[in-house]
Design brief:
mainly alpha; 85% helix
Length: 130
């Protein structure tokens, strides 16, 4: 009887560890995919990904409906810019250190493109539609 209980506990433990490992691996893969998709979008459009701006657009829309306070709207746009620049900086750090880049020439091109976007967003954020 005790042997059956121990075998059952070992089985449950092994199943739980295996399932947790599978879920963690899937999550890491999804995160890497999201990072690469964001970089591809930014490089091709020179715009932040929609999911980066979503919460800021909602806040701005809410202010427009309630009071249309131009000062508050501009403040939210600046926060959206700062948040996007922070996320862009994280992307740069990822590509500086990632082993998931085809080669050093590709890494150099990606980093140059992202640096150009960083400069554009700092100078011309008003062109980003919020």
């Amino acid at each position: 009887m005790w042997a059956a209980i121990i075998i059952l506990m070992v089985f449950i433990t092994m199943f739980t560890l295996s399932y947790t490992t599978i879920l963690a691996t899937r999550r890491v893969g999804e995160n890497i995919d999201n990072i690469h998709r964001a970089a591809e979008h930014i490089i091709s459009t020179k715009m932040p990904p929609e999911d980066w701006l979503e919460k800021w657009k909602k806040k701005i829309e809410s202010v427009k409906k309630k009071s249309n306070d131009a000062e508050k709207i501009n403040e939210l746009k600046l926060k959206a810019r700062d948040d996007s620049l922070k996320k862009l900086s994280s992307l740069v750090k990822y590509f500086e250190n990632s082993d998931l880049v085809a080669d050093e020439e590709t890494r150099k091109i990606i980093l140059e493109e992202l640096a150009e976007v960083d400069r554009l967003w700092k100078e011309n954020w008003s062109e980003v539609e919020l």
